[in-house]
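Methods — Computational structure assignment.
A single polypeptide chain was analysed. Its primary sequence is given first, followed by the predicted tertiary structure written as structure tokens.
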Amino acid sequence: MSVTLTYRDGAAVITLNRPEAMNALNAEMIHSIGALIDEAGDSDASVLIVVGAGGKAFCAGADVTGILGRDADAQRAFARLGQRTFARLDALRMPSIAVISGVAFGGGLELALACTFRVATPAARLALPEIRLGLIPGYGGTQRLSRLIGPARALEMITTGRAVRAEEAVRLGLVNAVAEGDDPVALGSDFASALGNPPPAAFALARDAVLQGFDMALASGLELEAELFAAVTQTKDATEGVGAFLGKRQPVFVGH
């Protein structure tokens, strides 16, 4: 299969498994990714790790062979399919981590941008090169990249199509960390361990507060934060967490 879901040490692992094409995305793969994100979300996994098979590429981008010949309505529908699929990561009650070994270009970088966190190996290269084909990103890249690194830097990357190497990506805030190793799943697991396994309810609400509040005026963002703070205080995990702190013991979170 061109996309697989496996489980390892408490992590769900989605592997883009088309190494002969540098894991380039086609319509079948995009549908599969969406279904497997949902399946991982229904599992007992504490984190979702997304990797590419073969070592040379996380994902070289969308397969452009099908672009020519579609009318505007079909192109719009295809872009929205990719956007909806990657947006499913936003609904997960667990962190998602893209581990970028080799290249993450075009739709591949857009998939990584939709993950909560990104880890790159030293040889990784990241780009949105669609401009060189007379195109623009269509799976969320223009929106997520600008929110992540700012509109000026995002526009420079998008309009030049240049590839960013791992160390520069860290400086830009495009990736969270650079890590060495031949096993991308292990790199993702190590990064997840450093997160401290946050309680799912609190993680999801914290993410909502940051990402949804980013588009709001400060006053509206503060109102959202207050609402989400109130909601999280009513969870069993909050009761357990505060009780464990006061009782000087380790909390046992249940996920809600």
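Note: The radius of gyration is 19 Å.
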